[in-house]
Write a structure and sequence with these properties.
single chain; alpha/beta; Rossmann fold; 2 domains; 8-stranded mixed β-sheet; 8 strands
Length: about 325
């Protein structure tokens, strides 16, 4: 009769180690799926400021996104604030492109206050919520793939509904990257103001993805791999630095805080150099300023330089 093998201490240790390894993998998998799910489906930021609170008359508009979602927007015609006269739209419109986790009021950067300056300078402003953001329908964020299509749809809407003949894009953070990618290829876009865009999303995710996701940095590669799976969109279909290389006869104004803590402060130099001689390029690296806060820290210079840029005048570059 054969004797049963004893359950030795060595085997017990092996089983315990295997259990710990499997449990650790399961825990990290749960963390990765959970944080990535939140990353690509962030909570919608609530509206806190409306144009009429700043003395601006506006009209609510809805734009159908390529995926069928309804994007909510505000069209603010060129006007003097606190005027009782009904404003007449200008042929010149600036379309705002908000940052990740933001919305059309862009309260975090005083976006509507900047819009007021543009309106008083003779420009219409259309600010809107990307699908899945603010008051728009839909869900999720794709870090550029879907947002570029949506911004192009808004450009077409402005051209058709308001008969705008000079359309400019102005974006912040991830929204700036979208503006660069969309504007570089869109023949209806004349000028692109990019405040705090990254140059290459791969580099951002390699260095900063854990800041966005909240997961440990050693899970960055797993999170990166899960984003296309959970969002349903490819991550690296395009990049701002590749887009500006394709651009022809565009006018770019690249702005970035010298103390940008999310994207490398070198992004502004990479983008300006890549735009090359086939485009008009201005750049301004704002001293003592963090990511996308250049308007808040340098309001007078910001307004002066961006409006001069939109008018086709020379802008001092640092």
């Amino acid at each position: 009769m054969k004797k049963e093998k004893a359950f030795t201490p060595v085997l017990a240790i092996i089983f315990i180690l295997l259990f710990i390894i499997i449990a650790t993998v399961v825990v990290f998998a749960i963390i990765s799926f959970s944080t990535t799910g939140i990353l690509v489906n962030p909570e919608k930021a609530k509206m806190t400021t409306f144009p009429d609170e700043l003395g601006l008359q506006y009209e609510f508009c809805e734009i159908v996104a390529p995926n069928g979602a309804t994007m909510a927007g505000w069209f603010i015609a060129a006007q003097k604030h606190n005027s009782d006269e009904k404003p007449t739209p200008s042929p010149k419109t600036v379309v705002f492109s908000h940052d990740y986790k933001s919305n059309k009021d862009m309260e975090e950067i005083n976006g509507l206050y900047y819009a007021r300056y543009l309106c008083e300078a003779g420009y219409n402003v259309l600010t809107f919520d990307y699908s899945g953001s603010g008051s728009s329908t839909g869900k999720g964020y794709t870090f550029g793939s879907r947002e570029v299509q949506e911004l192009n749809a808004v450009v077409s809407f402005v051209k058709d509904k308001y008969k705008s003949t000079e359309i400019s894009l102005c974006g912040w953070g991830f929204g700036a990257a979208v503006a660069v990618m969309a504007g570089s290829d869109n023949p209806d876009v004349n000028n692109i103001i990019s405040d705090g865009a990254y140059s290459d999303l791969r580099e951002v995710f390699n260095t900063s993805l854990h800041y966005l996701s909240g997961a440990p940095s050693f899970l960055n590669s797993i999170t990166e791999g899960l984003i296309p799976l959970l969002s349903g969109h490819a991550l690296y279909a395009d990049s701002p630095i590749d887009a500006v290389k394709r651009a022809q006869d565009k006018h770019f104004f690249f702005i970035q805080g010298q103390s940008d803590d999310l994207f490398s402060p070198e992004c502004i130099s990479y983008l300006a150099a890549a735009a090359g001689q086939q485009n008009t390029v201005e750049k301004w690296q704002v001293k003592g300023t963090n990511h996308i806060y250049s308007f808040k820290t340098n309001e007078e210079n910001y307004v002066d330089r961006t409006i001069r840029f939109l008018k086709g005048e020379s802008v001092f570059s640092e």
